[in-house]
Design goal:
By secondary structure, this protein is α/β, with parallel strands linked by helices. It has two domains: 193 residues, NAD(P)-binding Rossmann-like Domain (Rossmann fold, 3-Layer(aba) Sandwich); 113 residues, Alpha-Beta Complex (UDP-galactose 4-epimerase, domain 1), CATH 3.90.25. The protein is built from eleven helices and 14 strands. The relative contact order is 0.13. The strands form four sheets. It has a six-stranded parallel beta sheet, with helices on both faces. Helix content is 43%, strand content 16%. Bound molecules: nicotinamide-adenine-dinucleotide (NAD) and serine.
Amino acid sequence: MPRNKEGKTLVIGALGQIGQDLLDALYTKYGVDQVVAADIRHPQTPTAGPFRVLDVMDRSALFRLIEEEDIRRLYNLAAILSARGEQNPALAWDLNMVGLLNSLEAARETQLEQIFWPSSIAVFGPHSPRANTPQYCTMDPNTVYGISKLAGERWCEYYAEKYGVDVRSIRYPGLISYKAAPGGGTTDYAVAIFHEALKHGQYTSFLCKGTYLPMMYMPDAIRATLQLMDAPKESIKIRSSYNLGGISFAPEELAAEIKKHIPHFRCSYESDFRQKIADSWPGSIDDSHAQKDWGWEIEYDMAAMTADMLAHLEGVTA
Ligand code: NAD
Ligand code: SER
C-alpha cells in the first residue's frame, strides 16, 4: 500500500455526501492513520481514521491543524449547495468563498503538495449551451452557489498561475450515492427517489418530467477525483475546473429504470423552486478535455447505477 511518508491528507467537509465516499477511497490509498477527516460537526459514528472539528472559515485554526497533523494534501469539500444556498445567499457566499480562499492561502503559505476543490455544473447558466455544454462557453450562473463556484474557479486558476499552487478541480455533475445523504442540492431528487421507492413504493419528484441534468454515480466521481489527483502535473492543462459529463437523464427515465426492479413503484411530479435552478443548468456535458488530459472514462450508465444503488440500499432499508 502506498504510504504518505511525508505527511498526511486532510479532507475538510469529510462528513458530507462526497466526503464519506472519498474518505474510504483515501483510507485504501494511503492507510487510515494517514488521512485526517475534518468537519464543522461531530461524526455520528467515529471515523475510521483521525477526526478533527474544524470551521474552514477559521483561517488560523486551519493553519494550526495543517501544522499539527503534518498535512501535505488538502481536499476542501465544505460548501453550501445550490438549493440551500438560495435560502441563505450571504452564508453560502461566505462559506464557499472564504473556505476556498483559506484553503488556497494555506496551500500557498505552507507549500502543500496538492489541493482539490470541487466546482459544479452550476457554473453554467441560462445562456450557456444546454446540450453537450463545452468547457469554454458563455457562463452566467444565476444562483449564489453557481456564482461562488465560478468565482472560485477563477481563484483556483489565479493561485495556480501566480503562485504555482497545484490546485485541481472537477465540475461535478449531480452525484448519486448511498453512504451519506445529499446536502441540499437541486439534483438531490435522484438520491431521494431510491430511498422512497424502497420505503414507500412512491415518490414525488420536485423536478418535472423532461428535466434533463448531468448526473454521476459516486464510484465514478471518486475514481475521477483520484485519477485527476494522480495525473502528472504537466498533463493538467486546466486549472480552473474540468467539465465532467456523467450520465444525462430526466426524472421519468430514472423512475422507469427503478420500476424495472420495483414494479409497483409510482412517481409523480410537483416542481418547486428548484425547477428554475435545474432549468438554468446544462442537460449534458462535453468532458473531452478530461478524457484527453488525464484519460477520463465513465463506467456506470443509468442501468448499472440503479441496480447497484438498490442492491446497497435494500440491505439498509430492509
Ligand atoms: P455536503 O453538503 O453533503 O457536505 C458538506 C460538508 O461540509 C458537510 O459535512 C458539512 O457539515 C461541512 N461543512 C459545512 N460548513 C463547514 C465549515 N464551515 N467548515 C467545515 N466543514 C463544513 O456536500 P457534498 O455533496 O459532499 O459536496 C462537497 C463539495 O462538492 C461541495 O463543494 C459541493 O459544491 C461540490 N459538489 C457536490 C455535488 C453533489 O452532487 N453532491 C455536485 C457538484 C459539486
Ligand atoms: N448537486 C449539486 C446541486 O444540486 C450540483 O452542484 O447543488
